[in-house]
From TrEMBL:
EC annotation from Swiss-Prot or TrEMBL: 1.8.99.-
One protein family per Pfam: Fer4_11
GO molecular function: 4 iron, 4 sulfur cluster binding; metal ion binding; oxidoreductase activity
Keyword ATP-binding assigned: no
Listed PROSITE patterns: 4FE4S_FER_1, 4FE4S_FER_2, TAT
Top EC class for this record: oxidoreductase
Name recorded for this polypeptide: Formate-dependent nitrite reductase, 4Fe4S subunit
Keyword Iron: yes
Annotated keywords: 4Fe-4S, Iron, Iron-sulfur, Metal-binding, Oxidoreductase, Repeat
Naturally occurring in which organism (per UniProt): Aliivibrio fischeri (strain ATCC 700601 / ES114) (Vibrio fischeri)
SUPFAM superfamilies assigned: 4Fe-4S ferredoxins
Length: 228
């Protein structure tokens, strides 16, 4: 399924008002991953292991510090489920909410100024702050509801995989570096020998709202604790 500017806008009302319902798809990554780029371009993605995540929010704090995210807004959230089990044997499921860095990014398609764009050398969806006019189209179009207006830059903002901070210095994204349980894996999906592909090829994973044709690059290993 493709996600063109025309067909996305035609159905944008339905998407905007149903974003609270997360449509997911559990996949066998060995059958779905493709190393399609042959020109040296990268295609960065991330895996969040819900079994390893303990909800400590070290990732959110590291992101805020490294990227100078103002108080009151955030590029990354860890969502905690309702408690599972009986006290004292209570468990929680933690899942990541952040930019999915979609291959077919609706935010890019609806932006009238080109402020929202996908970097073709990395696959990272980003924002040209100086081009943003604050129309809010990208915030409304994002089916994952992860964009916000930065009160300092006065432009749309979101996770950029630390593209201008840690990545520019040859480091891993701040959230990955700070995670005490190694619940996050980041890397190049076009590199068949990368760590991220090793994780994807050895675990069941799912992505949110794939039925929209956005082709998100944030994969999640589903919470399986307590299951047989």
């Amino acid at each position: 399924m493709s996600c063109s500017r025309r067909n996305f806008l035609a159905g944008s009302g339905a998407v905007i008002f149903t974003t609270g319902v997360a449509t997911t798809s559990l996949i066998n990554s060995k059958k779905t991953l493709a190393y399609s780029m042959e020109d040296g371009s990268k295609r960065y993605g991330m895996v969040h292991d819900e079994n390893a995540c303990i909800g400590c929010t070290a990732c959110t704090e590291a992101c805020r510090e490294v990227n100078r995210v103002p108080e009151g807004v955030t590029r990354l959230e860890i969502i905690r489920s309702e408690p599972k089990g009986e006290f004292p044997d209570v468990e929680y499921r933690f899942t990541r909410k952040s930019c999915q860095h979609c291959e077919n990014a609706p935010c890019v398609m609806v932006c009238p100024t080109g402020a929202a764009y996908k970097d073709e050398t990395t696959g990272i969806v980003d924002v040209h702050n100086e081009k943003c006019v604050g129309c809010g189209y990208c915030l409304a179009a994002c089916p994952y509801q992860v964009r916000f207006f930065n009160p300092v830059t006065k432009s749309a903002d979101k996770c950029d995989f630390c593209r201008e901070t840690n990545l520019a210095e040859g480091k891993q994204p701040a959230c990955v570096e700070s995670c005490p349980t190694k619940a996050l894996t980041f890397g190049d999906l076009n590199d068949k020998d990368s760590e991220i592909n090793a994780v994807l090829n050895s675990n069941p994973v799912y992505r949110d709202k794939v039925d929209l044709g956005t082709k998100p690059k944030l994969y999640k290993i589903p919470y399986l604790k307590g299951e047989i």
